[in-house]
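Forum: Protein Structure Q&A
Topic: Joint prediction for protein chains with partners

I've read a bunch of threads here and the consensus seems to be that you should model interacting components together rather than docking separate models afterwards. I'd like to see that in practice. Below is the full input, 734 residues plus whatever partners are listed. Could one of the regulars post the assembled result?
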Amino acid sequence: MKLLNPGHLIDGFEVQTCLHAGGMAHIYKVVYAPSLDGSRRAAEFPMAMKIPRMTAGDGAENIVSFEIELQILSELKGTHVPRFVAAGDLSRLPYLVIEYVEGQTLQHWLDHRETVTVPEMAALGAAMARAAHSLHQQNVCHLDLKPANVLIRPDGSAVMLDFGLSCHAHYPDLLAEELRKAVGSPVWISPEQVVGVRGDPRSDIFAIGVMLYELATGELPFGEPATTGGMRQRLWMDPPPPRKHRPDLPEWLQEVILRCLEPVAASRYPSASHLAFDLTHPDQVKVTERGRKTEGTGFWTHFKRWVRASGMAYRPSPVPVEQIEQVPIIMVAVPHHDVSDATLYSLREAVARSLGIRPGARLACVTVISSGLTSSTESEKSETQVHRWHLSRLQQWAQPLDLGGHQTSFHVLESGDVADALLRYAEGNQVNMVIMGAATHGLQMQRVLATVPIKVAMQAPCTVILVKQGLPFERLAEVTV
Amino acid sequence: MKLALISDIHANRQALQACLAHARQQGADQFAFLGDLVGYGADPAAVLDDIMHLAEQGALVLRGNHDDMALNPPQAQGGEATLGSQGAQWTHDQLSDAHRNFLTRLPLTLSHDGLLLVHASADRPESWRYVDGESAAGRCLEQALAQQQGPHVLVGHVHHQALYFRGAGRGLMKFEPMPGSPVPTPAHRPMVACVGSCGQPRDGDPRAMYALCDRTLQKITFHRVPYNHTEAAAAIRRAGLPESFAQRLEHGR
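Posted by a regular:
Agreed with the consensus. Here's the joint model:
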């Protein structure tokens, strides 16, 4: 297919410059074509047109990919995908008009930056994880995440591009075949995709792990395999620990990267929001041997896993939304003043019940202190002192909970507006459920004033459980001393 | 343009009413009934009255194997009646001449703007073959395409909802749709859709099934509609039909 010249008209769009001429498609900047009277409709945002390269020699996969991208992009919402504008008829003139998003691809970052600092890596990783989670919440697995398909906006958030190999749980998977083949890019493809599993959100977490590994070390964890046999290595092999390449890398970051790259999907982060959480709270990452090691996994361990992996084959994946809903991030707001023991007790009971039915859930215990409480001059009111006191209080509060199997973290937020601080935290960390006390300032007031729990319940992006205080009679004596 | 596809009503008036109301609310402007209008259920005459009325307004209607059985009830052989034939004589006796004339004249297939409608399978429709797997769906599609019909074939008869599509591979693959979630069905991509049963679901969920084809957006949505199945079961008991027919509606299998 030959390049179109600027000024070429297609179905009401006028082609401008060519942005990209790749093997699969040409991408042009476009504007609305002038109408008969010469006036031109203004676009709400810059637009790009993607035209698949199809000639007589092109295989069916090319058109199938294009069809998948069209089906998925026209449905996806949110800021982590380019907005969909229009599509041409597939049998007549296939094209896709989407939002042209300002930013640099991660590939550009890798090509043009000498070194990326640890905070930059964490921010990039968290941005990718948030974007991936937004797709998973819409029942889409990207399945071809790689540096060329991740665009970083000037504000640091990520936009995912190219959905040609993606999978929507509510649509027939046009790339599924009787003979389950590996579909993906060899460097970033997850082990389960190698054996033909399509539709596990944790496959995208693996790909983000590969990108973080490359950002951190400049190396590819599994090289660039050219054969299926080469790709199968990742079914059993641990990559060399990043700290072997770069000893100054913090242990927590290696812990995060290697958890993303676990060969078995169930050993990775259960959802991308959990990954984003760790990348934005380095001090809360529980470092294990995985994060500390500087030598690769031994031959015998690999050999045993290789034997096991030889039997790995296709099995269907659960629906992404159901899967990620099983592993929610639960946030509990624990007040620190004007609070009765009965309220604290009831909150703990509510948390225990919510965690009890969700084995993979993660718990974030949060308390909000007013900004005036800390002082930079008085040592007993210094920020660290005050925070430390509140953290230990939160930990004491959580002590009676059975937290085995639940990742738990403690956070002190400083803000003059309690509801606002809780809402921003819930939104920023893709929290699935907020648990808080129903009435800290008297139910009578709530009819006229938007109190903290009412404001949170009305504006939260997720479920909110408002807990009423209630203390069993037999416990009254022991806690009120 | 939105075409509602309703199949295997089986004389279940409550389920039919619920699906019609649901489809109208979704903006359906045309109806197709893919056969087995009667049999099993307690209201064959009322259901046929409704459908004959809709047919006058342009609804498409096909004949199914149970409609055949109601016209010519099979004689029980040595007292061994099949579940379906048990009620056929009863159904036959409920119908007026007008009902029987209507059923007799119904076609087995209809071709409609890129769609082929058939009760059982386009592979010898008169043999009532079940499209119950990828290979049966493949044969159904093959026959439709051989007669220059389709490429979208819509069938009933199996009482389950499924979509068989052709992806990157050679054969058809089965897809289990999520109720209420539109599935893209571009005109160039062949498919066989089983719209499910309106009046006698058999997948353990008592809700009625039908499918809605959005011809403009080229999408098909498979719906599950709750209806008063206890009333439909009670009507079966009042009519003196076999108890198992009533229980089937209560349990959805």
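Chain A is about 35% helix and 15% strand.
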